[in-house]
DNA sequence: TATTTTAACTTGTACGTACATCATCTTCAG
DNA sequence: CTGAAGATGATGTACGTACAAGTTAAAATA
């Protein structure tokens, strides 16, 4: 590599601009044609110079818009990229999660990255092990679905350690408020609200809610459910909320059964997800009641299960695969020093209610 | 980065030579001018291709003497254990696969190994990319679910190269007969037989079969289906078998619909899997027929879907999570030099028929 | 005003040429 | 037989052109 070759000179000049602070991180540098005029060299030479700087991580190019100064050159500890992204999930076989994973994998592989996976089974001790593994694996970035996010997390120090190692991470579905990391989540409160509002507008008054209490998603959906009651000035009634945890699902379903057998049975039911909705649907069938005739049911997640049954479930939908793609996109952008549009690290997806056959209007006079 | 650009093609071809073992570490590759003639492109394009590969660490150049294959790969042969196991699957969000993955992950993490995942979407080109990624990732072992296993596979050389690098691999669900690798599979032929025999013993004679034709699982299940007809000396009838591929599922379901509308409609239906069974169930409902009243349906996989519907599906069950655990166990045993008890590298799981509500006995008078 | 289309500008790919620089093998002189 | 000069062929630098493809903002249209 000749020291006095033209492209080296151009390279060094541009590098100087960056080091002197004339070009700040994220800012656009001169276009190739401008550099051609400036230095009086050919475009090929300019591209060669820029190519080296891109390779070394000083710049990045964006097709059609320009060449920019990289963001993370300051504390660049010269870790060589392993092209591995870690992903920690709660349940691997959860019926909803594969679509997120698929989105992540799709984008990662298109960018030449690989995916290292681990799952916690919603156990905090296991989460700790996963984080330890990831830290020892030389990953470039980490995507985490937090475990038991509704309670305090003892593994905070690991996440802080990630920051010290300059490994970007991002949380999906939920996030630990204590560290307020970049996150992609669905507005579950709104989702719960939409589901409940739907039944209220259909004239239902006695609407039962069953929610999972050991993660934030469940807690938030429940909030939305309660909000809807408040907003429509509906009275609360006893036993209107059933909560369950990973360990107590079965017995709580049995509880629902006895509630449905009582004569004061509810006319509507908001479920934490489609899986629970189907469990309840089974109970309803065994009691010789009909859906939506005797009971309207709303699910959540709009999963494959929602349309598997004879009664297609009304369910709250959210962009699962898209969230995976976005997560991968953001983590890679951060790794490669690209700045995302408007600086915001996080995004909240709006849920949407898909009305199918499992809910119906109550034919009472009270409905406007 | 256009995938079909010339320099990418040249790059991939050269990378192939390395990964297939045609060019060994330290060896000189063709000179730029030779490559120009070989590919019929300009020298600039060749240099661009080589530039990328040098950048990625596959090659290095020596001014005046030539371009050589990096010996970074050589260090991998006497590599220290990375404690990484690669897993290549077809569909990540397939409703059946998560349980296998869960089994794999469970055992791997208990043994301190990590899981690197990639999926092919049942596309052979993508499988090639996945294998390339895995080969370049320093993995200790590889678990593969083969892609389009019913047709010839163009990626054989990659598997052979794995052997050269002393990386054990194992196939699940299906396997390429050409290389006869260690494999864990379900006896799908028997599964298809069991399902069909069940309907025959219930007095059915006109039994339709719908199978996926682009993977071996489908072909084998179909074999079992045909075997059952032979064994029970039942006559074959026209249109008794419908086959579909990944791309043509929808239209074939429509075909089933018209068969069911005809007056000579079948009384039984053997489905490739539960997903198809549910699709057909939807069609049956829309025709105002009843299951199992007018039509008995048998699914396959005994998945979550089988019990999601109001008519619980009779389905063929097989040990999904167990297969994952076994796969992980065997691959790690091989890595760590442990010998497995009975010497056999492969195992065939016996499927089991779970009889539920979607099938019923035909009373003899109705049977013509 | 809001939306669509167009034009201008950006980087990406691909071809061509010429000569410089370095390593290696061949040839020839000693 | 040995050493130096030269021929050959490899990569490195540098110039040029042309068009493709993506982005953005101005201009035209509804």
Automatic annotation (TrEMBL), chains A, B:
Family annotation (Pfam families): GntR, Peripla_BP_3
Highest taxon of the lineage: Bacteria
Keywords, comma-separated and alphabetical: DNA-binding, Transcription, Transcription regulation
Domain HTH gntR-type: 4-72
Protein name according to UniProt: GntR family transcriptional regulator
Species this chain originates from: Fictibacillus fluitans
């Amino acid at each position: 590599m000749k020291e006095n070759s033209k492209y080296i000179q151009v390279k060094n000049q541009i590098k100087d601009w960056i080091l002197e602070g004339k070009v700040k991180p994220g800012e656009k540098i001169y276009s190739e044609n401008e550099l051609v005029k400036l230095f009086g060299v050919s475009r090929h030479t300019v591209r060669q110079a820029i190519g080296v700087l891109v390779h070394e991580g000083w710049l990045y190019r964006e097709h059609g818009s320009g060449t920019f100064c990289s963001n993370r050159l300051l504390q660049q500890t010269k870790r060589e990229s392993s092209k591995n992204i870690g992903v920690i999930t709660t349940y691997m076989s959860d019926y909803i999660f594969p679509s997120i994973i698929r989105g992540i994998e799709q984008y990662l592989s298109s960018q030449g990255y690989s995916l290292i996976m681990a799952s916690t089974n919603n156990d905090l001790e296991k989460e700790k092990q996963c984080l330890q593994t990831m830290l020892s694996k030389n990953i470039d970035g980490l995507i985490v679905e937090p475990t038991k996010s509704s309670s305090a997390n003892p593994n905070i120090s690991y996440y802080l350690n990630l920051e010290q190692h300059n490994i970007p991470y991002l949380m999906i579905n939920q996030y630990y408020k204590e560290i307020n990391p970049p996150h992609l989540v669905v507005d579950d409160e709104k989702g719960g609200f939409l589901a409940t509002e739907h039944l209220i507008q259909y004239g239902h008054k006695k609407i039962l809610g069953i929610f999972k209490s050991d993660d934030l998603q469940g807690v938030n959906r429940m909030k939305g459910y309660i909000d809807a009651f408040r907003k429509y000035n509906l009275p609360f009634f006893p036993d209107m909320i059933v909560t369950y945890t990973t360990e107590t699902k079965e017995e709580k379903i049995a509880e629902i059964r006895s509630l449905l057998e009582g004569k004061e049975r509810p006319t509507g039911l908001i479920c934490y997800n489609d899986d629970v909705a189907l469990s309840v649907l089974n109970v309803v069938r065994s009691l010789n009641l009909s859906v939506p005739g005797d009971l309207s049911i709303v699910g959540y997640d709009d999963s494959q299960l929602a349309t598997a049954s004879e009664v297609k479930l009304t369910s709250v939908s959210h962009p699962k695969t898209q969230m995976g793609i976005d997560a991968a996109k953001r983590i890679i952008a951060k790794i490669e020093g690209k700045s995302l549009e408007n600086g915001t690290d996080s995004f909240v997806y709006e849920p949407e209610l898909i009305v199918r056959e499992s809910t119906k209007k109550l034919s009472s006079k009270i409905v406007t």
